[in-house]
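User:
Note these tokens:
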Amino acid sequence: MTDIVDQETRSRMMSGIRGKNTKPELALRRALHTRGFRFRLHSSKVHGRPDLALPKYRAVVFVHGCFWHRHEGCRYTTTPSTRPEFWQAKFDANVARDKTVRATLLEDGWRVATVWECALRKPDQVTASAELLSAWLLSDEDQIEICAEGVQSS
């Protein structure tokens, strides 16, 4: 199947997709800051440039989009019908990179949290996710994954 828009239009549309400072990320940052947590944004000193780095807790937080990072079982994890091979290769590369970054951070002694976009779509979900993340930051667990259903096992 071919693309329904021309290449120039598609390029303009794709360039508008943010990689940093997304709405879900901003919502989570506000909620954590309100709870007294301080963090570094997209720190180049930490492998993988996590969305949030909390050196005091030796923890990093990634806010993953369900579509781009392939949140398994999520209704927002769809695959475009145009050029499915291209998309599958792109998604596979994203998932592989996420696994490598997570493993490297854990080996380096960092604790890793992944908060999925579906857990940050409504204000009450943001509050619940921030509470779960706050409790995790104060614990000694090394990983957590938060989605719309709550905490997932990694």
User: Anything to note?
Assistant: Strands lie at 40-41, 52-54, 59-64, 111-116, 143-147, 150-152. The longest strand covers residues 59-64. The chain has a mean pLDDT of 91.
